[in-house]
């Protein structure tokens, strides 16, 4: 299927809406993953790495919150 073709007829959701839903889910999933990674680093005594993962987790949360807000506006 060509990249410039809408696939909404397959999924029942327009590509741009699907992309936003995917981004929200990926951001939330990444925030969970960063929690595991930061705990791994803490167990190893690497506070620098743990903080790095915590900052990444914060950015993932921020992206998820922005996506959820955008979804809420578009669904209402």
Q: Round the mean pLDDT to the nearest integer and report it.
A: 93
| Largest sheet descriptor | none
**Structural shape:** elongated
What string gives the helices and strands in order? HHH
Cα separation of the termini: 32 Å
Please report the number of helical segments.
3
Q: Rounded to an integer, what's the Rg over CA atoms?
A: 17 Å
Helical amount among residues, as a percent range?
over 70%
Q: What is the total tally of β strands? A: 0
Low-confidence runs of at least 5 consecutive residues: none
Structural class: mainly alpha
Binned strand content: under 5%
Describe the structure.
The protein is mainly alpha-helical and 76 residues long. The protein has helices at 8-11, 15-43, 47-75. It is built from three helices and no strands. The longest helix is centred in the middle third of the chain and has 29 residues, at 15-43. The model has no long low-confidence stretch (mean pLDDT 93).
In short:
By secondary structure, the chain is an all-alpha fold. 82% of the residues lie in helices and 0% in strands.
List the helices and strands and how they pair.
Layout: H1 8-11, H2 15-43, H3 47-75
Keywords:
single chain; 76 residues; mainly alpha; 82% helix; 0% strand
């Amino acid at each position: 299927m060509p990249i410039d073709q809408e696939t909404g007829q397959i999924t029942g959701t327009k590509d741009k809406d699907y992309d936003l839903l995917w981004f929200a889910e990926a951001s939330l999933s990444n925030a969970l993953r960063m929690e595991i990674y930061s705990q791994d680093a803490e167990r190893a005594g690497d506070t620098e790495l743990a903080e790095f993962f915590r900052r990444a987790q914060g950015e993932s949360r921020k992206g998820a919150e922005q996506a959820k807000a955008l979804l809420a506006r578009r669904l209402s």
